[in-house]
Amino acid sequence: MTGTSPSVATDRRTLRVGTRRSLLATTQAEQVAAMVRDRLGVDTELVEVTTEGDRSQAAGTPLPESPTTGVFVGALRQALLAGEIDLAVHSLKDLPTYPETGIALVAVPPREDPRDVVVARDGLTLGELPAGSKVGTGSPRRAAQLHALGLGLDVVAIRGNVDTRIAKVRAGECDAVVLARAGLARIGRLDEVSEVLDPLQMLPAPGQGALAVECRADDPLADLLTVLDDPATHAAVLAERTALATLEGGCSAPIGALADVAEGEDGPELWLRAVVLSTDGTLAVRRSASAPLTDTAAAAHLGAQLAQELLDEGAGQLDSASPTPHHPGPNPAAPTAGSTEVHNA
Ligand SMILES: NCc1[nH]cc(CCC(=O)O)c1CC(=O)O
């Protein structure tokens, strides 16, 4: 192990790319490794690190789809800090919103399609599934938005990796499951998709479809790896994640957020929309806002501002712990016009 003698990147012939062991994780890591070889002209080697999340899946107690505690990233960060790997590749949506001392997020490569998809029996869409159909998901965000469609679907909690979840449909255990399109795209299983969900009905998780490349903050490699960064994607996910971080301070309800880059009159703009729902989907607060796509500070500001508007509209009262959510209280300061709505779904 050469971790104790800091070397400059050009001294390293082979960069060690840390990844979780799942098929999705290693596929993503190999994609980033290919970019590293191409852009930096160095060799790469994948180093598989077993995370707490993987261990518990192997032991038969898989974690929920959207663990918020970073169980999938801790071991990779430890390996970075210990000098066992040079860079780590994560699904960005699995990263906790708070930073880790000594670890830098150095690049966000171009994003995959961030939408959620349905994999259903007989190629059915959600609208074609009869009331009472079992739709599997372990994500409170997906469950709340499924309930909000008002189709009478029976949302059942399932866990496990992408393969396991698709297998539940093929085995007849569920009529359908909802997954991130990006995951299926990366492992070459888009042919399983029966419907791509419009973000108007199913807003993805903040950061969904994007990858995060991390390395040690004090490693000279950090500067070199910025060539992997896609500034538009980076700004978009920063806006989404800042909204998430701000909302996490004031509420524990399911959250969806998506920022798109669109061409405005005076150049590219970031258009951010977000939703906070009660767990059972009967109540939702939704809002959107846009800002010129300039720097990361502007993107973060957009996210924080939108989150604050959602909190002002009562998002903090959509208590995920409450089985019978109540209407958010009136807010005299809230504007009456705009794209916010508090509704019974
Ligand atoms: N929570 C697990 C996870 N983390 C990232 C992805 C998919 C790839 C991505 O969103 O970038 C998935 C699977 C899923 O949600 O279906």
Automatic annotation (TrEMBL):
Gene3D superfamilies: Periplasmic binding protein-like II, Porphobilinogen deaminase, C-terminal domain. Its EC number is 2.5.1.61. GO terms for biological process: protoporphyrinogen IX biosynthetic process. It holds the Pfam family Porphobil_deamC. SUPFAM superfamilies: Periplasmic binding protein-like II, Porphobilinogen deaminase (hydroxymethylbilane synthase), C-terminal domain. One of its GO terms (molecular function) is hydroxymethylbilane synthase activity. Residues 316-345 are annotated as: Disordered. Tetrapolymerization of the monopyrrole PBG into the hydroxymethylbilane pre-uroporphyrinogen in several discrete steps. The porphobilinogen subunits are added to the dipyrromethane group. Monomer. This is Porphobilinogen deaminase. The gene is hemC.
